[in-house]
Every structure is written in C-alpha cells, then in structure tokens.
C-alpha cells in the first residue's frame, strides 16, 4: 500500500509532506521537534497534522500486519485463489478484511459444523439454488439413523443451519448490514424493572430511543455506563423487518416462489437472530464506543492543554494554605524557585477558633519570608480562609488568590511527592503543591496523573490506552511549547521534553546535582546516555537562562547557531547585539540566508525568537476575586450575577466555580446569546467569566448558570406554550442530568 498517497488524500495535504513526515518519524523524530524544527521538510505541517500522519500511519501498518496474517492462514488451508488474494489485498478497512476472512477463520464446533458431519451440505446446496423441487422427497434421502438424522424436519433443520452460516459469512451482505445498523439503527435504553430507585441518576435513559448516527459522545457513554452498572438494558439495532428485508433482497431470487425459497427465508430469520444481529450489534457498539471515546478524549485533551498553559505567577516568594476547619489550615512558605522553607498549622476557624493567634502567625511569616503572594486552596474552608487572610490588613503588594486544588491530594500521596519530601506529612505536601501550582501550573501539574486533575468527561469509561496516548501528547505539546529551564526543572517536567523520557530526565537531574548548573546546551552531551539523536530532539526546547551564549536561553536550535552568528557577522555585530537591537534585526534580509537545508519558515522563526529569547508564551497572571459574601450555596439567589472561573468543559456546556464549593453548569444553550455548537468556541479552562444564577437546588447540590445577556427572556415564551403538549425532553437538554455531573456521577 502506498501510505503517503492514501494519507495525503485523507488529510488533504501533499504526498511529499506525508513522505517527509513518515521518514522523520521513522528516524525517531517527535511530533514537537518535527513541527518546530523541520518545517522545510514537511511544508510547515503543525503538531496536529504531524500527529495525524503518525496515527494514521500506525493504523495502516496494523492493517497490513493483519492482512499478512490472514493471507498466511488462508494459504495454509490451501484455499487462497488469485481472486481471494486480490480481495484481501484490496480490503481498505479492518472490518472489510475480517468479513473476507470470516469463512476461512478457524471456528469452534457450530450447528453448521454438526450438520455437515451429518452429510447435509448437499441438501443445503440444493435448497440454496431455490429451484422448485419436491422438498420432502429430497430431504428424505438424508435420513440416516447412524448420523442421527431421524426425520425430514431434522434434515431440513440441519440444511438451514448450514444456510444460515453461509448467509452470515457473505462479505457484501455484512457490509450492507453494517451500513444499515449505523445509518438506520437506534440506541434503545430501558431501566431494568425494580431498579428505578437505585438508578435515579440515569432517569433520563429509563425509556429513551435515539438514532445511532446522531447520538453524541456523552449520551453513548452514559447509557453504556448505566448498562455496565446493571441499571439499564441497552439495544442498538435497526427495525428487524428492515434488516430481514435487506437480507432477502440480497439472498432471495425475487422471480421465484416455492418451498426452497421458504426454507431460505427461514434460514435468513435464524441467521439474523442467532448470528448476524449479535455480530453486527457487537461491531456497531465497538464502532460507536470508539467514536464516543475519541470525542470524550478530545474534550479532555483540550481542557487539559488549557489548564496546563494557565498563566504562571512566576518566581515569587509564596505562602500556600491548604484550608480546613476541624484539622486546621496547613501553611507552607516557598522560595522563588518553589523550594520548601517553612511549615506550620493554624486554626482560624471553628471549632478551635484561634483566629488571633493564626493572624499573628500569617503576618509574621509574610514579613519573615518576604511573601509576595498567598495561594489558598479552593476546597473545604477555602472561601472562609480567603476572607480571614484578607481581613488581616496585609500590605497591598501581597497578592491573595484562590487556587484550584484538584489533584493536590493525589500528588501528596504519590511516589513523586515522597521522593521530593520524604520527611513531610501528606497534608504538607498538598499545601506545597497548591503554592507551586500558582507559581507555575505546568511544572506542577505534570507530576499528577491527568485523570486526577478534574477536567475530563467519562475518563474512566473510555479506552485507557487511547486516553493515555492523547494526554501524553497534550502534556508533551504544552511542555515543549513553553520550553523548560534545564537548571530548575523537575525530573517529571524533563520527562516530557522531546527526545528525553524518564531515564534521560533522571540522568540530567543527577548530573546537575553532581556538577552544578548547566552552563551551556552543549554540556548536555556529557550527560550519561544522552547521545546526538536525543540532543537533536531536545536541545531546542531546553533553556539555560544564565548561559554565556544568549541563544541557549532561546528556542533557536543549536544546529542554527552558526547561521545566526553569520547574520551578526554580516552586520558587524555580535549575537548579543542582535538580541538587544531591533534596528539591527530589521536590517536582516532573510532571503540572503535561504539554503537547501534552511528556508524562510525557519529563518522567520529564528528572527522572531531573537526578538523575544526565552519569553514565556503563556498569558500574564491576573488576580481573580470571587464575590465577597458569597461563600456557600445558601448565599446564592436566582438572578444574582457573579464572577467565576471555568473549571471544566464538556460537550454540553461548561462548569464554573463561583466560590461556593460547588461548581455550577452553564449549559450549551446558555453560553451565549447565539446558537453554540461547541463550547470551546466561547470559553476555555481557567477563563474568568461573569455568570447569572438561573437555578439552585441545594438538596442535590446543583447550580444552573447562564452567560446570556438576558437568561430569563425565554421563560415568558415558554410559559405561553405550556398549554401545548410537550415534546419528550432530550437528555442533552436536561439541566438536571448535566448538573448530576457536579457530584461526579458520570465522571
């Protein structure tokens, strides 16, 4: 198979771009490296396109591997005709290949096998011709006591068993049936009788039907989970009459009407119910699950990327507080590089209520460690602790802000945390994580399993390998997009740098500990096992801010240093002069430096980087404040307008933290005054938004929010129509079902 032509056609790019990308991938190139430093070869394909080529290439290679196994199996059976070989070689999908292979696939002992052993295959062939014959006389010839065929009906039944297997194994019919299931089939979900009370979270699916082809990811996964938990019965088939009609159109000679035709029709019904329907339903459910997984994983990956690329506070002295009532607040002080300096517990809240003592401790530590910012976890007692700290009259220069602590407890109990702080308690490690997350979200979040960060949808229901691969790609893209300071980065952060991985990351940290900070990128080649290939892949993404050569602090790859030096020399200046002087950079004519290896895309990247060497591409940090006096759901009122932070995005809307320890849902229909198909058009994770409270359900801990300019405008219209018969409400529009997500019911 000509991979490059096929992939180019599917992805709508040129075949030479695919070929170059394939070659670079096969040479060990990573997606970030290829998209950033090999633009001339790939025609400037971006990360998404390079990853798409990589993934499709793997699929096609897997298909070819299976094709070889199928050909070998059929050949060993002595049944590989030239026509069959051609059909196998031309199969473009795994499903088509398996359809062709099905008649030759080794089987367990089936009804058809038993019928053949009784010598009934000639009778089946005779009936299959659909000619007008004396069926009873024909079948009576096969009555044989020794072979346990005792009657005409037993002979006919055996023949029908063989016919059913033939029909099931007919490749073109299976292809048509698969299409019928996908295009005309329905998901039908019903509650298991007697489980109505237990299954209340799946109430929208107690009696629900919708087309397979339009069912969205979150509903497919919700119904499947309900079935897995033994609350729902789920069917995924077209109307039986439509399926039987399709088979008859393929298998029955419409010009004939006789006893043989009736026997074939009986075999068709048996084939569909016993063989074809279960097989197709399994296939379709796998296909729809795969599609639903892909969408859920896409949403998760997009949310994760936005979270990882959140604005960093930067290198500041930080106090971090993991809040609590009964057990007190765990307080730590961190240095500008995130180093642990001090820990103690304070008890500003009930039941101890040692607020005066706690206040003196906070103010004393702010002075002692020159604290520039205070990070407070947004969990239990978070808003109360924020109010307490703000009441202390600290200098206005001290930033006080809430930090999303999702996953901090997972980190505190992890091997990574034990390595970093073997002598600290779990709760203290959690406070450290909260503080570091404010300073640099990316550097801290890479230490936590992405599934624990709280931005996924149905993450435990999707294909775990596919999820891991997608999230690894996302983290790698974020890490390499920002760049990594090699002299301060953790092993976990270095692991995601292009070309490194856990072993080389550990070696870099150990080398740094033994020999002191790296003074140049070239010194990385002295790290054990870090060879030329790994250096090529990684060097451009590693930064050394205090290096003698200013390019070592930039995204300019070392392989282009000589080129930059040539630019500087031609202007009678140094590289350092180029970095500092915009006037000098404006005098560079990039066309003078185009060569076979370097084109304008790379040259423009170099020029852009000289203007901002090592500058963090993330947004600048802005202090966010929740509404004062709104600390719990009891403080909320319908119609209240509040500032909030987007914490999670799903296919049906966005969850927003408004500072009451319970995220609210802005449903898709309330994200904007216009129609919104994809929430990512409107919001992103960590975005600051203003919302209006439209629904409060304290017993079930559910909050409905809106970002519309007038969220109540439609209510009057709906009330006017209330006398009309209501349509069955679609689960996707059910605020109740989506709000159930808040309690993790579908997470």
Automatic annotation (TrEMBL):
Any one GO molecular-function label of the UniProt entry: structural constituent of ribosome
The organism's taxonomic lineage, starting at the top: Bacteria, Pseudomonadati, Bacteroidota, Cytophagia, Cytophagales
Protein name, UniProt field: S1 motif domain-containing protein
Residues in coiled coil: 135-183
UniProt keyword list: Coiled coil
GO BP term, pick one: translation
Region annotation Disordered: where it falls in the sequence: 709-747
Domain S1 motif: 639-708
Pfam families reported in the protein's UniProt record: HHH_3, HHH_9, S1, Tex_central_region, Tex_N, Tex_YqgF
Entry-linked SUPFAM superfamilies: Nucleic acid-binding proteins, Ribonuclease H-like, RuvA domain 2-like, Tex N-terminal region-like
Domain of life: Bacteria
Organism (species): Algoriphagus ornithinivorans
PANTHER family documented for this protein: 30S RIBOSOMAL PROTEIN S1, S1 RNA-BINDING DOMAIN-CONTAINING PROTEIN 1
């Amino acid at each position: 198979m000509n991979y490059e032509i096929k992939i180019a056609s599917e992805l709508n790019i040129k075949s030479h771009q695919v070929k170059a990308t394939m070659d670079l991938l096969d040479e060990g190139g990573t997606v970030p490296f290829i998209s950033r430093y090999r633009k001339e070869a790939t025609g400037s394909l971006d990360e998404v396109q390079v990853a798409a080529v990589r993934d499709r290439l793997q699929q096609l290679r897997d298909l070819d591997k299976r094709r070889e196994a199928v050909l070998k199996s059929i050949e060993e059976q002595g049944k590989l005709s030239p026509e069959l070989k051609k059909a196998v070689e031309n199969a473009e999908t795994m499903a088509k290949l398996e359809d062709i292979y099905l008649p030759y696939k080794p089987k367990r002992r089936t009804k058809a096998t038993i019928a053949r052993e009784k010598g009934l295959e000639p009778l089946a062939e005779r009936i299959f011709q659909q000619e007008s014959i004396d069926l009873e006389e024909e079948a009576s010839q096969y009555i044989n006591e020794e072979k346990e065929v005792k009657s005409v009906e037993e002979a006919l039944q055996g023949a029908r068993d063989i016919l059913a297997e033939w029909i099931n194994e007919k490749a073109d019919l299976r292809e048509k049936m698969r299409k019928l299931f996908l295009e005309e089939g329905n998901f039908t979900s019903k509650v298991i009788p007697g489980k109505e009370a237990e299954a209340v979270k799946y109430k929208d699916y107690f009696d629900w039907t919708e087309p397979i082809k339009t069912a969205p990811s979150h509903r497919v996964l919700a119904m499947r989970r309900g079935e897995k938990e033994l609350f729902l019965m789920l069917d995924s088939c077209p109307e039986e009459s439509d399926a039987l009609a399709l088979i008859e159109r393929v298998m029955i000679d419409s010009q004939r009407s006789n006893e043989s035709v009736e026997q074939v029709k009986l075999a068709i019904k048996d084939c569909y119910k016993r063989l074809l329907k279960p097989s197709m339903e399994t296939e379709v459910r796998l296909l729809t699950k795969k599609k639903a997984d892909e969408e859920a994983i896409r949403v998760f990956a997009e949310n994760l990327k936005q979270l990882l690329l959140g604005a960093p506070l930067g290198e500041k002295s930080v106090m971090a507080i993991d809040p609590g009532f009964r057990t007190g607040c765990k307080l730590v002080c961190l240095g500008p590089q995130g180093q642990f300096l001090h820990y103690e517990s304070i008890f500003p809240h009930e039941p101890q209520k040692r607020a005066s003592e706690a206040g003196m401790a906070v103010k004393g530590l702010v002075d002692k460690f020159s604290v520039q910012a205070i990070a407070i976890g947004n969990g239990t007692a978070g808003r109360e602790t924020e109010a307490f700290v703000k009441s202390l009259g600290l200098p206005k220069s001290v930033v006080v802000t809430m930090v999303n602590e999702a996953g901090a407890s997972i980190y505190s109990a992890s091997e990574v945390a034990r390595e970093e702080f073997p002598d600290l308690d779990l709760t203290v490690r959690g406070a450290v994580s909260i503080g570091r997350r404010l300073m640099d979200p990316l550097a801290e979040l890479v230490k936590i399993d992405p599934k624990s960060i709280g931005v996924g949808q149905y993450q435990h229901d999707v294909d775990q390998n596919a999820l891991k691969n997608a999230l690894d790609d996302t983290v790698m893209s974020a890490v390499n997009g920002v760049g990594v300071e090699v002299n301060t980065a953790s092993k976990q952060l270095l692991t995601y740098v292009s070309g490194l991985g856990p072993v080389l990351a550990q070696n870099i940290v150990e080398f740094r500990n033994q020999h002191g900070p790296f003074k140049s990128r070239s010194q990385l080649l002295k790290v054990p096992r870090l060879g030329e290939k790994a250096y090529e892949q990684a060097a451009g993404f590693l930064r050394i801010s205090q290096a003698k050569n200013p390019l070592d602090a930039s995204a300019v790859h070392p392989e282009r240093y000589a080129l930059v030096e040539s630019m500087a020399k031609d202007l009678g200046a140094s590289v350092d002069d180029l970095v500092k002087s915009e006037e000098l950079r404006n005098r560079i004519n990039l066309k003078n430096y185009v060569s076979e290896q370097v084109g304008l895309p790379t040259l423009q990247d170099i020029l852009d980087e000289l203007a901002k060497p090592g500058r963090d591409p993330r947004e600048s940090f802005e202090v966010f404040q929740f509404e004062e006096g709104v600390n719990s759901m009891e403080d909320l009122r319908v119609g209240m307008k509040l500032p909030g932070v987007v914490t999670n995005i799903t296919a049906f809307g966005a969850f927003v933290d408004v500072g009451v320890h319970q995220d609210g849902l802005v449903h898709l229909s309330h994200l904007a005054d216009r129609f919104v198909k994809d929430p990512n058009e409107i919001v992103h994770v960590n975005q600051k938004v203003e919302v209006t409270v439209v629904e409060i359900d304290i017993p079930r801990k559910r909050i409905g929010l809106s970002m519309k300019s007038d969220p109540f405008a439609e209510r009057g219209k709906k009330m006017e129509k209330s006398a009309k018969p209501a349509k069955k409400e679609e689960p996707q529009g059910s605020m109740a079902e989506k709000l159930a997500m808040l309690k993790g019911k579908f997470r």
